[in-house]
Amino acid sequence: MLSILTHIAALTIVLGLFIALIKTDRRSLMFAALLLAFLVSLLFYLSIVFDITALSSHAGSIGLPVVLFISLVALIALGPLLLIAVLIIEGILLIRRHGIRPKNLLSLFLGIYLIISNIFFVHIITQTAPPTTGQYIHLFLTICADYLLLLSSIYVVASCVNFVNLVHEDLKYIIVLGAGLINGRVSPILAGRIDRAMTIYRRNPDSQLIMSGGRGPDEPHPEAHAMKQYAIQQGIPAEDIILEEHSSNTFENLKFSADLMTETNEIAIVTNYYHLLRALIIAKELGISCIGYGAHTKFYFSVNAFVREFIGYIVLRKKLYLSVLGGLILLFGAFVAYQQLWL
């Protein structure tokens, strides 16, 4: 009887998470969190069905669900540690290739800080003497940093989910987000975005390209003009290119581009992989129903850029995460008060 109830409870959780998953817009961190929870619960349910004791008493496929369940849980648990390793290794590669500049130090310094802070964290919680005020402050900052590390891991999963479009829609508009000019010409990063957009355009012959980018303070003309010229040189008809030449950031890229469209669906956004999720989240806030495509970028450069994009996401959701910070302060304050009064 207990076994049947366990099966029913586990299956209910799996189905509940699956229903929540398909009803959640994938352009969010919630989708990624639900996806991870669904995969863990599904493999846990399969391990119950096949009986976890089969792992030691049978060979072959009987123990496979159990092995997969344990592997997935271990991978999720080790995800933040892997992220720290990637931050440090790719940060070093970025500096070796592009030199020591403030913007190139972000991922390396972040990885080093996370290691050092967690070493101190372990030292504080294992010492026998009561923590000092300074140690309490460090403990709180480490908890906040580890929370952001976990959140950034989910952000990476959410980004990867949005890289893949299993169903190719008949697109009407392909929005190419600007990325700056060099001496009035498209930069290599921007050229990569346009190349990716042209590939998608050729698969959708009835679509139009929207080149979105205004004029920067040191640029002779709007980015959109240079983007159009680049696309025409690659064989794209001028009549299939729409210019949005007034934007100065991603929000304006999408808002002003939406004003130029006669339809609000069958839309794709093209930018670099590291920038894609935040662009899709902004599009969601603007009520733009769309999918996204990422242009390839060198991995060591993408890691540093991902860190900047994650910070941009936190700023975008600052009200939510300020509320979370307030909750952490209250909980930690209660913990410190308990330590001081009762222990």
Explain what this protein looks like in three dimensions:
Residues 173-312 form the DUF218 domain. One of its GO terms (cellular component) is plasma membrane. The chain crosses the membrane at residues 6-22, 29-50, 62-93, 105-125, 137-164, 320-338. Keywords: Membrane, Transmembrane, Transmembrane helix. The chain is 66% helix and 9% strand. By secondary structure, it is of the alpha/beta class. It folds into two domains: 92-164 and 298-342; 169-297, HUPs (Rossmann fold, 3-Layer(aba) Sandwich). The strands form two sheets. Strands 5-4-1-6-7 form a five-stranded parallel beta sheet. Helix 8 (223-233) links the parallel strand 4 (208-212) and strand 5. Helix 2 (29-50) runs antiparallel to helix 4, helix 2 (29-50) crosses helix 6 (133-163) and helix 10 (273-285) packs parallel to helix 11.
